[in-house]
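Thread: "does anyone have the structure for this chain?"

Original post by V.I.:
We have the sequence but no experimental structure in hand. Need at least a predicted one for the grant figures.
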Amino acid sequence: MEVRKSDNSVEEYSTEKIRRGVKSAFKVAGKPCDDIIVDFVIHKMRIYDNITTAEIRKQIEHCLMDIDKDAAHAYIEKYDQMTADKVAVARRQDFITQYLDASNAATGSKFDANANVEHKNIVTMGNELHKEDNILQNRRMLYERIRLLYNKKTAKQYIKDIETHVLYKHDETAIPGMPYCVAVTMYPFLTDGLTKIGGISTAPTDLKSFCGEFINLVFSIASQFAGAVATPEFLMYMDYFIRKDYGEGYLSRLDEVVEDNAKRRTLESVIENCFQQVVHSINMPSGNRGYQTVFWNVGYFDRPYFEGVFGDFYFPDGTRPRWETLSWLQKKFMKWFNKERERYILTFPVETMAMLTDGKDLVDSEYADFTSEMWAEGHSFFCYLSDSPDSLSSCCRLRNSIKDLEDEEHNHNTHQFSMGTASVATGSKSVMTINLNRVIQDAYNREGETDRESVYGRIREAVADVTERVHKYQTAFNSIVKDFYEADMLPVYSAGFISMNKQYLTIGVNGLTDAAEFLGIEIGDNREYEEFVNLVLETINVVNRKDRTRELMFNTEFVPGENLSVKNYNWDKKDGYFVSQKHEMYSSYFFNPEDESLSVLDKMRLHGNRYVRYLDGGSACHINIREHMSKEQYRQLLRVAAENGTNYFTFNCRNTVCNDCGHISKDTLQKCPKCGSGNLDYLTRIIGYLKRVSSFSEARQREEHIRAYK
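Reply from O.Q.:
Generated one for you, tokens below.
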């Protein structure tokens, strides 16, 4: 008789297979099994032609239950595992088939679509294959730690919050227990090189060794974090080594030939070559990050900012940074990088210019003018403004301020952008994002009065409640990271590049504008919207402050949500929640990017102090423009930003890339100016970083297509 297997193939019925299976079950159960038992099982079998293997197993299980329950359970567990393994293999095979047909790597990704992967290949596919296993392991590990620190009820609530999409744990696909992102101090690099983080290179001694080892440093640190790596001191340290090699007055030697070889490079050419070596190397895909480029961030400072942050800094040899040479190097790097982007598509570093304001204008007029000049020349970078040099930006959205507000209740003690471009030795160990649209609609629909005061009271209570739960989950994750640290498995910390106590546990928010639309609030610069935004963010801020300890710091971030904004929107839509029909994903800003009615000034006001004052983890205002403005216009917008307290923003004008000849233009064109081709692609920021639109996920490509470029 024939037996039909799970894959629909057939084979001859064999009693020998049953014999082996039964004996194996008794062996696993630790009990003897003689032939009489096996013969009894075989005798009890009711076999017919075309019987399935599932039916045979079911009959054996029932028979063993009457003989020995321990052996029966051992048999069931063995074949359940075999079935699960087969299902997992089949699921992965289906994924491979789908990935082969995907339009690009971001669209092919099942769990966390990411435009930072330029091309799909066998490495990117291999990285995706095991993400589901990592999610399950991360989720189980955190569940057990929450249960250990609190109780089973809280642990179950965590799983419920994740599975009902009230909450999203970022980078669950990463290696279990891996911290999120970091801005490092490079000081240990000057004293120990890479030796304390597993490398063999000792401290750099000159410009050449600095550049080579710095590349390895960035890749080494990035391998231990799921997100971005920021090196805000990069140019200051490069300037240090240029001065060591070519003297304190090297600016007077820029045209001097300093290489006695066939190339006969001048000092300025040597410096440009160093830029190229570092930038091009770090923009190469990294195998240990699934063929993604390292998310690398750097910062620039105007003079008052530099003096406020590094005024008391000394290098290991007792010398101090020199503003005159560093300022030249910062400007040189920005000019060079802008020009280099006309030759190559270079995503990283993400740059941030940090400048001091007096509430009306920029304090350093020279750097205000230079910043405006760079934007007018088509360069794409972020600007961070603060009225105190103890407040720093840390990435494409995050910031910190060590300045206390006058009231003790709010968490303005240390505003910290969690990813790092202009702050030193900070970051985020973990980001968990609250789906505000779902939480607020659930609060609204709870039994109670429908007047504004009552509704806002329920919203405040719901947001506070979920924030307190997230703090417990984040505390548990912090405990896991600590275990890895104490086991010497996170050498970046033990080597002194970052301290665990200086990294935040970040509460992300997503779905704010759709929640406002659900409540009938106009999304724009108006009193009602301002009140709603501050209700939500102040509530989280107060809870963050309340739960802060010497070891644990919490901040709130308006997450970019490259992938999450799409997921949350679709999950909520599927579950019957209100979602706006004007777009197909949640906004990453205080406005909707497709809103044609908003001007540049409106967007700057919506990311001004009246809206962001409780967002102590930061946000970024992306101002999409149809064409570049003049230096004078950008300079005026800097004044507007200073007056409104718009602390983090950038301007996005789509760059044009010709797919035929490779020409890159800083302008948005319909035809290639070099070869006349209409086969074009465009470069713009998907969220925080610059990429080809064609490398966006399909959902993000549709979102980019409806953005309002004013």
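V.I.: this helps a lot. The longest strand covers residues 426-435.
O.Q.: and The first helix runs from residue 15 to 29.
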